[in-house]
Amino acid sequence: MLLTADIGNTSITLGLFDEDALVEEYRLASDKDLSLEEYEVLLKSLFKDFCVEGCIISSVVEELTSKFKTAVNNVFKISAIVLSTKINTGVKICLDKPNEAGADRIANAAGAYILYKHPVIVVDFGTATTFDIVNSKGEFIGGVIAPGVTLQLKALNKFTSKLPRIDVALSEKAIGHNTTDAILSGVLRGSACMIDGLVAQCEKELGQRAVLVATGGYSGLISKYLKRPFDFINPTLTLEGLRYLYQINSLDIVGKL
Questions:
Q1: Beta strand 92-93 with 120-125: parallel, antiparallel or unpaired?
Q2: How far apart are CA 225 and CA 69, in angstroms?
């Protein structure tokens, strides 16, 4: 079985694939303070009933990358692949500085490349809200990075003296009649307006209509406020992109033997 790991700023998402089928999914906190031994214990506990034969890791948290890779290697006696521009990324990365592309964004672009028609815009709702754009030639040409929903809520609380820290909930009306509703409207409906506007601008630059794909924790919630709905909501897109990248890199390794 294949273990895919997406290490983000807030959480680590783990997916276990039996060939092309995702059979288990887990979410852990991205805890930089956990020791190597503690991560090994977690992995042994979660996957004690499975035979993990390969692993690919995407990470945007440098402090965790090496630690988590070593834990995987020690527990499963394998050599995990870490996603970077040094391996086969599945799509041509047409950025000014390709090395700046986040591993999760490469995985999203690769997943979009194999699953959907082009051009495609992937909107990923994580700590940041990101757009990953694959053009009609199947090239990852870049995208957009903006503060995510939770980050906006934290910032409003941290950098103001009176605005409270609130939990994410539905925004019933655009006009908030109390502070909580006003914040929810600004963050949730504001994020939707941002997405609608940026999608239109991106499509203008692409010169054609794109397939819209959403992934990440708040994709279903934000979609309620969009003028133009997503064509697809795929919560496991990043993991599926990682599976694809592991497969093509395994073929590359075999071809060099």
A1: unpaired
A2: 39
Question: CA–CA distance from 52 to each of 61, 75, 242, 250 (Å)?
Answer: 23, 9, 15, 15
Q: Identify the pLDDT of residue 220.
A: 87
pTM of the model: 0.89
**pLDDT number for residue 252:** 58
- Please give the single-letter amino acid code of residue 68: F
Kindly name the residue from 20, 49, 104, 196 that is annotated as catalytic: 104
- Residues 232, 25, 169, 191: is their CA dihedral positive or negative? negative
Mean pLDDT by 10 residues, the chain (257 residues): 94 95 93 94 94 96 94 96 93 92 93 93 94 94 95 95 93 96 96 97 96 91 94 95 94 49
Task: Give the angle subtended at the CA of 82 by the CAs of 54 and 104, to the nearest 5°.
Answer: 110
Active-site annotation holds for 196: no
The secondary structure of the chain, three-state, reads CEEEEEECCCEEEEEEEECCEEEEEEEEECCCCCCHHHHHHHHHHHCCCCCCCEEEEEECCHHHHHHHHHHHHHHHCCCCEECCCCCCCCCEECCCCHHHCCHHHHHHHHHHHHHCCCCEEEEEECCEEEEEEECCCCEEEEEEEEECHHHHHHHHHHCCCCCCCCCCCCCCCCCCCCHHHHHHHHHHHHHHHHHHHHHHHHHHHHCCCCEEEEEECCHHHHHHHCCCCCCEECCCHHHHHHHHHHHHHHHHHHHHC
